[in-house]
Amino acid sequence: MIRWGEERRNQDPGYFCCLATRCPGAQKPVWIITDARRKTDVQYFRDKYGTRAISVRVEAQEEVRRKRGWVFTSGVDDAESECGLDEGVTWDVIITNDGEHSHLMEQLDQLEHSIRGKQGKQ
Question: Which of 1, 28, 77, 95 has its CB surrounded by the most CB atoms within 10 Å?
Fold first, then answer.
């Protein structure tokens, strides 16, 4: 299945994004893509939705991630699907999720404000 998906992506980098955005009921005022994994995924939504797209990266320090149970697995955590967006993408919003609840809520409030602003410009 992974090989098939990679073959499709090699033929058309936006293949899976296109499927998601053209299915019945796909015309939404706001899209929240929770699992973009490649630069081509981010670029697809920027190309298709222009300034209505807001790219958001959620980050946490490795120490915090380890405390939450994350363990680096070679061949998985260093694969393109896991770290392909770590460099070379200019994010509209970066949310830091290092465990301070009030700071996280402030960031989410700012994101909500940005989304509502984009909705009014459609």
Answer: 95
Q: What is the pTM of this model?
A: 0.81
Calpha distance 120→73 (Å, rounded): 43
Q: How far is CA 25 from the centre of its chain?
A: 21
Encode pLDDT of 46-57 as tens digits: 998 888 888 999
Provide the 10 A C-beta neighbour count for residue 1: 5
Q: Which of 118, 122, 116, 57 is nearest to 92 (CA)?
A: 57
How far is it, in rounded angstroms, from Cα 70 to Cα 63? 9
Bridge partner list, 57: 94
Q: How far apart (Å, rounded) are the C-alpha atoms in residues 100 and 117?
A: 26
